[in-house]
Write a structure and sequence with these properties.
Blueprint (H helix, E strand, L loop, with lengths): L2 H20 L5 E6 L21 E8 H9 L6 E2 L14 E7 L8 H13 L3 E16 L7 E2 L9 E6 L6 E8 L1 H11 L9 E3 L7 E7 L2 H5 L7 H9 L1 E17 L8
Parallel strand pairs: 3-11, 5-9
Antiparallel strand pairs: 1-4, 2-4, 5-11, 6-10, 7-8, 8-10
Length: 265
């Protein structure tokens, strides 16, 4: 009579052990508070790309951005403590993260490693819900894309590097080897103020890998009537894509627990 419970217990233990063995993790990871005086210019925007030395590096990244990368969601899809977003008087904490990726790691495994890092170092737990909200649907414009496909066999990882634009008052980013899904994530990282009301969702159907340069003005400048393209206009006119507002049911992450400070390295 006691064999079935024991068998079930053994199966549960074996399943848990298999899950622990199969869940990919970084070999080692270091997390430090960022230098608050460091400039954002010439920094790469957050992306899941490991360098040739197998290190994944983030500079000046917020916890919110780490969660966005780990789970492929936009900022409005994350509901959690106030320190995630910060305020003008108390900005969100920023961190410099360096993590070593095991040999043979695939790109699909990197988000899983980042999830393990968030759970282990910041004790992140959450549950999922579905909510209908405004989104920005990323689609191909009526005249087709204006981006160039990356050269076949080109070296380097998917990333966008920020800089000052060629025109006064503009910002710019040079992006290389990015997919349409990367574009949705990177545009939100480059100009988050434009997308506080809803995330960008990639509905373009594009399968290529692209290189391009993007130049825009901040939302604050746009609201004062400053000259220059908004991020919405830049995506349309410079990339040949469009961001269309619509209502759609999306998955949201409701944070149950999250430490503001990580455990020690």
């Amino acid at each position: 009579m006691h064999r079935i419970p024991c068998a079930l217990a053994c199966i549960a233990c074996a399943t848990a052990a298999l899950h622990a063995q199969s869940a990919p993790e970084f070999e080692v990871a270091s997390i430090h508070p960022s230098n608050p005086t460091q400039s954002y210019v010439n920094l790469s925007t957050p992306s899941l790309s490991a360098d040739g030395d197998r290190f994944l590096r983030f500079a000046q990244i917020t916890l919110r951005d780490l969660i966005m990368l780990a789970y492929g969601v936009g900022a409005p899809q994350i509901q959690g403590p106030g320190f995630l977003n910060g305020t003008p008087d108390s900005p969100a904490d920023r961190f410099d993260v360096i993590a070593k990726v095991p040999v043979g790691t695939t790109r699909d495994q990197l988000p899983l490693m980042l999830r393990a890092l968030l759970a282990g170092r910041f004790h992140l737990t959450f549950h999922r819900e579905e909510k209908t909200m405004q989104i920005f649907a990323l689609e191909v414009g009526k005249n087709g894309i204006k981006m160039k496909e990356s050269p076949e066999g080109a070296a380097g990882d998917a990333r966008c590097v920020r800089s000052l634009g060629e025109h006064e008052g503009t910002l710019a980013a040079v992006c290389t080897r990015v997919t349409s899904r990367d574009i949705a994530q990177q545009v939100q990282a480059l100009a988050p103020a434009y997308f506080r009301d809803g995330p960008i969702v990639d509905l373009s159907g594009l399968k290529g890998i692209y290189d391009f340069k993007l130049e825009w003005i901040t939302l604050g400048e746009a609201n004062t009537g400053a000259p220059g393209p908004t991020m919405i206009d830049a995506v349309q006119n410079q990339l040949g894509l469009k961001l269309e507002k619509r209502k759609q049911a999306v998955e949201i992450l409701v944070i149950d627990k999250l430490d503001r400070t990580p455990t020690e390295n």
